[in-house]
C-alpha cells in the first residue's frame, strides 16, 4: 500500500527535505505541499491523502486549527494528521491530540523514526514522541481548567471495553491487549473498534485523551 502524504510547513527547505526523504522511500507518495494551515486544509480536501504532516506554528491558520478543520470534516474521515514541530511544549502536545491528531513528533526526530511514525499512523495506531510521555498528557488533562469536553460517552461502554480502553491509554497495541487479556487478536481489534464507534473517536489517539478526561485513567496509572 502506498501512503499518500501532504506536507504542511512554512519553511520551504523543511518541506523539500521531507519530500526527498519520502520520495526516495518505497511506499510513500507526496501529493502536495502547503506553507500554511489554510493551504494544508485545501490540499487535504483536494487530494484526500492518508496523512498530513502538519507543523504547529504557521502564518494565518496555524497547524492546530488546520488539524481541527481536517479531523472535523466528514469527507476527510480517512485522513490522519501527524503534528511535527520544534516546540516540545505540554500544551501543544495535548491540544494537538485533542484536535484529532494521530500523533506528535519533534523535528529533530531521526528520518527512520519519521517513516515509522507515518506507517504507524496510517495503520490507525496512536503515536507520541519518545520524549513526550503519556504521563505528561495525563497531568495536563487532569488540571481542572483543561476539562472541556463531554466524556459521558464512556458510560456506554461495557466493563470489558473499559478495561480495553484503559490498556489503549497505557499504550498497548491490539496484539499486546490480546496477550494481556488472553483473547484473540481479532477480538481485541473488535473491542477497540466498538469503543471508537461508541465514543465517537476517530483514532486511538483520541481514545487516549478520552480515557484521561473521563477519569478512567489517572496520572501514573498507565504508560
TrEMBL record:
4-aspartylphosphate: residues carrying this PTM: 55
SUPFAM superfamilies cross-referenced by the UniProt entry: C-terminal effector domain of the bipartite response regulators (SSF46894), CheY-like (SSF52172)
Pfam families xrefs: GerE, Response_reg
Domain Response regulatory: 4-122
Keyword Signal: no
Organism, scientific name: Amycolatopsis acididurans
Record's protein name: Response regulator transcription factor
Boundaries of every HTH luxR-type domain copy: 150-215
Keywords: DNA-binding, Phosphoprotein, Transcription, Transcription regulation
Residue ranges of coiled coil: none
Amino acid at each position: 500500500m502506498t501512503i499518500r502524504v501532504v506536507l504542511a510547513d512554512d519553511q520551504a527547505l523543511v518541506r523539500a527535505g521531507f519530500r526527498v526523504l519520502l520520495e526516495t522511500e518505497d511506499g510513500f507518495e507526496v501529493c502536495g505541499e502547503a506553507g500554511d494551515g489554510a493551504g494544508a486544509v485545501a490540499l487535504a480536501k483536494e487530494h484526500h491523502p492518508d496523512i498530513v504532516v502538519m507543523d504547529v506554528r504557521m502564518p494565518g491558520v496555524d497547524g492546530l486549527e488546520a488539524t481541527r478543520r481536517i479531523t472535523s470534516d466528514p469527507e476527510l474521515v480517512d485522513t490522519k494528521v501527524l503534528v511535527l514541530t520544534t516546540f516540545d511544549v505540554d500544551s501543544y502536545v495535548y491540544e494537538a491530540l485533542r484536535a484529532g491528531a494521530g500523533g506528535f513528533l519533534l523535528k529533530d526526530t531521526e528520518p527512520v523514526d519519521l517513516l515509522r511514525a507515518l506507517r504507524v499512523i496510517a495503520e490507525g495506531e496512536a503515536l507520541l514522541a519518545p520524549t513526550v510521555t503519556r504521563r505528561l498528557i495525563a497531568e495536563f488533562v487532569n488540571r481542572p481548567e483543561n476539562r472541556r469536553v463531554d466524556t459521558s460517552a464512556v458510560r456506554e461502554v461495557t466493563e470489558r471495553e473499559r478495561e480495553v480502553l484503559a490498556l489503549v491509554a497505557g499504550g498497548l497495541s491490539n496484539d499486546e491487549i490480546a496477550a494481556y487479556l488472553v483473547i484473540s487478536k481479532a477480538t481485541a481489534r473488535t473491542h477497540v473498534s466498538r469503543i471508537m464507534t461508541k465514543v465517537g473517536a476517530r483514532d486511538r489517539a483520541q481514545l487516549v485523551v478520552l480515557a484521561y478526561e473521563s477519569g478512567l485513567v489517572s496520572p501514573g496509572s498507565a504508560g
